[in-house]
Amino acid sequence: MGGRRPDAYEKTASGRLQRRLSTNLNQYERENTGDRVRNKIEELARIGKRAGGWTPPGYVLVKPHEYELHPKYAPMVRRIFEDASAGKTIGDITEALRIKGFVVRVRQIERIDGPDTIGGRPFTWDQVKGIINNPFYKGVLLVGKPNKKPRKEFQAIHPPIVSPELWKSANAAIKRHEHPVYVPRENKHQLILHGLAFCGCCSFPMVSHPGTSWNGRSYLYYRCQKLRKYGSASKCNIGQIRADELERAVIAKISFLAKDPTVLNAAMEDALKCRKQAISPLKERISSLDQEIERKKSFCKDLRDKLLNLPKGSEFISEIAAEGDRAVIERKALEVQKKVLLAEKAVLEQRLGAGSQMRADLRHFTEIFGALPNDKKQQALQLVISRITVNRPTGKVTKSRVENSEPVPLRHKNAFSVDLDLYVKSSSSKSLRDQYEDCVSDPEMAARAGIEPATK
Question: Which among 199, 192, 251, 121 is positioned nearest to 416, based on CA atoms?
């Protein structure tokens, strides 16, 4: 190189050629190593042996590539497939495993800072779903990339836990409810946006979550329910927002509507119209249930008359009695459905009454709203708002900069924005979104960042 610096040498034709050759050789080695590994995995699968990895629950590794059934966990795995095939949800199966005390097998691993122990915790929803989807339990080995189909199948030498029919039935059953169903949590903290706020990243509801700030003060937060379920694996960029700041931001936007009685009247009228439209199909369903219940009662009465007219010891008595029992069970199920619909109808009628009462005081909405208890505030917001979507402003958090000889304000990392979906589908929604501005969870931080908090 004649004493020249390496970077100067790479600027020459010989240096660029050497760099390209070195890069191509390294790429060849990587791809060749991957091909050898894949060929070895397929070679083992052809003779019915699993290449390696964590031992699946329900098995014990006795020799390299050879497995035997675990005396405790093999029946557990079989029970999982039977429950899934019977129609139970993955959440119910996971809860049953937790109650019975089944935990993930404890493993010892080596880390840079020494040995570590993992496992020993209850099974999660994803782990149970992985067990049901794993063809290893029916004695089949799959070879190939998961996202590249079709994958090659080979018969394994290890003893299967379930039959291929049971495996297929269980997987077909869980596809009907593949994703976990999130039941709305109880509003034990009396947050006024409960059931209205949703994460703009995951579309999951934002639920109450108590927490403590860096200075030791206790706060309530609206946290994405997917984040609560999966943690960092959810990849949610919303996370959690302080409850008081989010509520103040929403109230500030509703107060903007209150300044224009025409807009708020239109929103209220449309909200009441939506409530009335929701009550109308409820009334129709209740009426149809009443007719069906009356038909069941009349059918049971006819069966009773038939039984009275039959001679003693007739062979038709047991058949008619069984048919009558089925009719009674069906009638009771219809009555339960009717009770549920009546409760929904009562709630909607109560909200209609509250809306009519508040419409007279729209001009003093801010003062009245501040004096209401939390449950009444929640009812008042539900009259006008159908959904609140919380987002993070786009773009990276940057330091102050100057563009076109003008300073550009900072955006704080805790800034958030809210998008309100009103029941009214008119210019009022657009006028509200015209006021769309970033919010930040701490006014002092907002002042340092150069933006105005939404709670002004």
Answer: 199
**344 pLDDT above the threshold of 80:** no
CA atoms within 13 A on the CB side of 40: 9
pLDDT of residue 454: 37
Nearest Cα to 94, choosing from 75, 80, 82?
80
The mean predicted confidence, pLDDT, of the chain is 76
Q: Yes or no: is domain 59-177 CATH 3.90.1750.20?
A: yes
**Greatest extent of the chain over all pairs of C-alpha atoms, in Å:** 120
pLDDT of residue 433 exceeding 60, the answer is: no
Q: Round to whole Å and give the CA distance between 174 and 124.
A: 15
* Extents of the domains making up the chain: 59-177, 255-449
Give me the helix-helix angle, 125-133 and 164-174, nearest 10°: 140
Say which DSSP state 355 is in.
Answer: H
Pick from 241, 252, 255, 235: nearest CA to 440: 241
The set of long-range contacts for 393-400, using a CB threshold of 8 Å and a minimum separation of 24, is 393/417, 393/438, 400/450
The answer to whether the beta carbons of residues 422 and 386 sit under 8 Å apart is yes
Residues 128-160: tens digit of each pLDDT: 999 999 999 999 988 887 666 678 888 889 999
Asked whether 154 and 48 are in contact (CB, 8 A), the reply is: yes
Query: What is the CATH class of 255-449?
Result: mainly alpha
Q: Go through 131-141 and write b for each residue having 16 or more CB atoms within 10 A of its CB, e for each that does not.
A: bbebbbbbbbb
Q: For 285-297, how does the pLDDT look when each residue is reduced to its tens digit (9 = 90+)?
A: 888 888 888 888 8
Query: What are the distances in angstroms from CA 241 to CA 129, 221, 286, 397, 456?
Result: 31, 5, 41, 17, 18
Helical H runs in 139-260? 164-174, 225-230, 243-258
As a whole number of angstroms, the distance between CA 187 and CA 382 comes to: 15
